Amino acid sequence: MPNALHNPSGLMPSVLFDLDGTLVDTAPDLVFALNTVLQEQGQNPLPYESVRPLVSRGARALIHYGFQLSPEDPTFEPLRQRFLQIYANNLDTHSRLFAGVAEVLDTLERWGILWGIVTNKPHFLTVPLLERLKLYHRAQAVVSGDTLAVKKPHPAPLLHACQQMDMPPQTCIYVGDAETDIQAGQQAKMRTLVAAYGYIQADENPHTWGATAILDEPLDLLAWMTYQTVEQPL
């Protein structure tokens, strides 16, 4: 891949993506895992539409929502571990790239723009999923939720990805579907884009997050980037 800093197009030379709800629609398999645990415990499964907006918040949020338990409850952690076990066995049963993501990644590579992934998903789930989707070896950086001692909204994971790509943060875009993604990107001094097609709750308003722009679909990223250059101020 050519060095994106010498990209004749003058476009931003690197893009980092969140994973769940931004690159990959993982909700079907995560909702399945939660509903399986609920049914094992003698409870009714929850409607897909009610669980989907919570997916980006991770296993703890899903267990809390499904069982109405606090993390301090002694039954919480065993339920979370069971959820993770079921999900690990169904990582890519129904999870797929969002429509348009494949074209976005192909185009970024054709333009000579480096791209990577920064997610709060743990390493033991992130890497197998990316490998099965044939993304792991294409990404120039992969930072999971347990790669460092901190995770988003702390900016350190994003800065770590920039180091892996040998790119200064101010020349990088971060795309995510959660407010914590935007907070992390802002603290890292990056341009931030909201993936509004992702897992956003009905009572959330991405327009108040202070992001650089909002993407209604993945392909909007390419259109937005054609009007941005490294020289334009943040």
Automatic annotation (TrEMBL):
Give an example GO biological process: DNA repair
Alphabetically ordered keywords of this record? Carbohydrate metabolism, Hydrolase, Magnesium, Metal-binding
What is the catalytic activity of this protein?
2-phosphoglycolate + H2O = glycolate + phosphate
Instruction: Tell me which SUPFAM superfamilies the record gives.
Output: HAD-like
Q: List the molecular function annotations (GO) for this entry.
A: metal ion binding; phosphoglycolate phosphatase activity
Q: What's its EC?
A: 3.1.3.18
What cellular component terms from Gene Ontology apply here? cytosol
- Enzyme kind, highest EC tier: hydrolase
Q: Which family does it belong to?
A: Belongs to the HAD-like hydrolase superfamily. CbbY/CbbZ/Gph/YieH family.
Q: Which NCBIfam families match?
A: HAD-SF-IA-v1, HAD-SF-IA-v3, PGP_bact
The protein depicted here goes by the name: phosphoglycolate phosphatase
What is the organism field in this record?
Answer: Beggiatoa alba B18LD
